[in-house]
Amino acid sequence: MTTISIFGVGLIGGSLALCFKGKPDITVIGHSNNPTSVENMVKRRIVDEGTTSMQAAAEAADIIFLCVPVGALETYLERLKQFSLKKGCLITDVGSTKLSVVQCAEKLRFKDAYFIGGHPMAGSERSGMEAASSHLFENAFYVLTPGTDTPVAEVERLAKLLAYTQAQIIRVDAREHDDIVGAISHLPHMIAVALVNQIRTYNESNELYKNLAAGGFRDITRIASSDPFIWRDILINNRTVLLKLLDDWDQQISVFRELLEKEDAEGIEKQFEVAGTFRKQVPDRRKGMLTPLYDIYADIPDHPGMIGQIATLLGKHRLNLSNLQIIESRLDVPGVLRLSFRDQETADRASALLSEQFSIHV
Ligand SMILES: NC(=O)C1=CN([C@@H]2O[C@H](COP(=O)(O)OP(=O)(O)OC[C@H]3O[C@@H](n4cnc5c(N)ncnc54)[C@H](O)[C@@H]3O)[C@@H](O)[C@H]2O)C=CC1
Ligand SMILES: O=C(O)C(=O)Cc1ccc(O)cc1
């Protein structure tokens, strides 16, 4: 029997618990300092057992997941050091930054226990165990940052367990991780928040700003609704990297400023062109790297039951639908319903069938 103890059963901790719970020979223990949270995680069946005792959860564990905010990780590691952990206990975390936690674990020198940094590169702007889902990590990258002296067998032990998340495991150096994730996740979060706050200021004198805000604004600012406490910790922790990235951001924005001042139409076009070309190459994680999906877009009439009819028709013709998404904005795709299939042939057949049966534009 493998006992997994999860500290911080929120969005990420809860989602991991749901991935592991009920799997052969696994028991999941959830820890919270708050007795009501412990009650909730057990009642919602996110964990097998819950406890407010950090020591009990730690000493029972074969594998420990630290799923608390980045700013609390080092304190948790220091407390773990004071307990009698099981021999060979594996400790990992899910923090959005890696260098500081890896360095802290190295300094603490656990005896007979191993620390491997981890970061599931999937999440949401929601937080708390209510938002947890066993599907959260499917197809996403899950970064591991083992130290040079971490036994390969331990990394493999963790990777084997993480297979339950259906994420793709990738090993990255901790410093490199923080540079890259700073650029692709932390900087965009700051930009989204700054942009929303800019518009919020204008909106104070004219509510039309908010009311006219269209799909593009909502798309680029979704992550501005992320949890303030979680993000406060991430940004402060990765501040050295972020300050450098903000210098580069200023540089990018000043390119636009210059193009506008010079009324350089061609230059502006070029900016959109090169960005569009690069963006097309960014893999859509929803599809997954290993199993790409083939999309069609259907412009369907907005009346009740239509989606059900489409699904039934496809099922009747044995055209397996892998994903279905209602697109909120009509601005950037030619339709409102995205239907994804495993191969091009199925997508083509579905497309022909829908045009024929419903006279809808596909
Ligand atoms: N939100 C996201 O999309 C992602 C977050 N992460 C990382 O996962 C970790 C957890 O984040 P979420 O699950 O999103 O947050 P969350 O707020 O949903 O969960 C955090 C949990 O930690 C507990 N906690 C324990 N000690 C705490 C303390 N000292 N201060 C505040 N809360 C404490 C909270 O009660 C809560 O159950 C963070 O380190 C974050 O950087 C990683 C990938 C994605
Ligand atoms: O929802 C999004 O787009 C995210 O960016 C989610 C996310 C948040 C924090 C992470 O460390 C990793 C992924």
UniProtKB/TrEMBL annotation:
What PROSITE patterns does the database record attribute to this sequence? ACT, PDH_ADH
Please state the Enzyme Commission number of this protein: 1.3.1.12
Q: ACT domain spans which residues?
A: 295-362
Gene3D superfamilies reported for this sequence: 3.30.70.260, 6-phosphogluconate dehydrogenase C-terminal like domain, NAD(P)-binding Rossmann-like Domain
Pathway-wise, it operates in: Amino-acid biosynthesis; L-tyrosine biosynthesis; (4-hydroxyphenyl)pyruvate from prephenate (NAD(+) route): step 1/1
Q: Which GO terms describe its biological process?
A: tyrosine biosynthetic process
Domain of life according to the entry: Bacteria
Q: Which InterPro entries match?
A: 6-PGluconate_DH-like_C_sf (IPR008927), ACT-like_dom_sf (IPR045865), ACT_dom (IPR002912), NAD(P)-bd_dom_sf (IPR036291), PDH_C (IPR046825), PDH_N (IPR046826), Preph/Arog_dehydrog (IPR050812), Prephen_DH (IPR003099)
GO MF assignments: NAD+ binding; prephenate dehydrogenase (NAD+) activity; prephenate dehydrogenase (NADP+) activity
What are the Prephenate/arogenate dehydrogenase domain coordinates in residue numbering? Answer: 2-290
Q: Which Pfam families match?
A: PDH_C (PF20463), PDH_N (PF02153)
Q: Which reaction does it catalyse?
A: prephenate + NAD(+) = 3-(4-hydroxyphenyl)pyruvate + CO2 + NADH
What are the alphabetically sorted keywords of the record?
Answer: Amino-acid biosynthesis, Aromatic amino acid biosynthesis, NAD, Oxidoreductase, Tyrosine biosynthesis
Task: Give the UniProt family note.
Answer: Belongs to the prephenate/arogenate dehydrogenase family.
Task: Tell me which PANTHER family the record gives.
Answer: PREPHENATE DEHYDROGENASE, PREPHENATE DEHYDROGENASE [NADP(+)]
Which protein, by its recorded name, is this? Prephenate dehydrogenase
